[in-house]
Amino acid sequence: MRKVISFMHVSLDGFVAGPNGELDWVKVDEEIFNHVGKRISEGDTALYGRTTYEMMESYWPTAGDSPTASKHDIEHSKWYKNVHKVVLSKTMKDTGLTNTTIINNNLADKINEIKQQPGNDILLFGSPTATHSLIQQHLIDGFWLFLNPIILGQGIPLFTDIKDKIKLHLLPTTRQFSSGVTELNYTVEK
């Protein structure tokens, strides 16, 4: 069975965005782009909340076409165009979208249905509201976190309204980057 893996940058104090959704504190560089690019290139399904999907859609389909596009932009743009996208949204309509499925109700049933289909892990990118919904329904199987060396003090937390303990197992793929960002990979113990 496929797994849903939440991919997220997080501050040392557990926030995934500033109070207004700002991400200007996230450290990314060529080293991280190359590492992440290798991992996501194996993915065939990307899961987003509506807001993150709209941000991605406004940039990635054409990002690789620019004459000044970086290696990362070219590779990620190609991947983005080919990957199947699943969007959690109560307001979007599933009309005219290429290679995209909208889930607007029966979240657990529909995510579990996708998990039963053949394919690789389902990567949930950013999308704190979607992540919170999936956590509350026990639909996330792992966390791929990039711990940034900063304390924000306030913002949008990664974990909120947790009713039951979630036991995690740290995988041996932990890595520290030269920027000070530390990659942490956890599986959810069932």
From TrEMBL:
GO terms for molecular function: 5-amino-6-(5-phosphoribosylamino)uracil reductase activity. Residues 2-171 form the Bacterial bifunctional deaminase-reductase C-terminal domain. InterPro entries: DHFR-like_dom_sf, RibDG_C, Riboflavin_Biosynth_HTPR. One of its GO terms (biological process) is riboflavin biosynthetic process. It comes from the Bacteria. Transmembrane segments: none annotated. This is Dihydrofolate reductase. It comes from Chitinophaga niabensis.
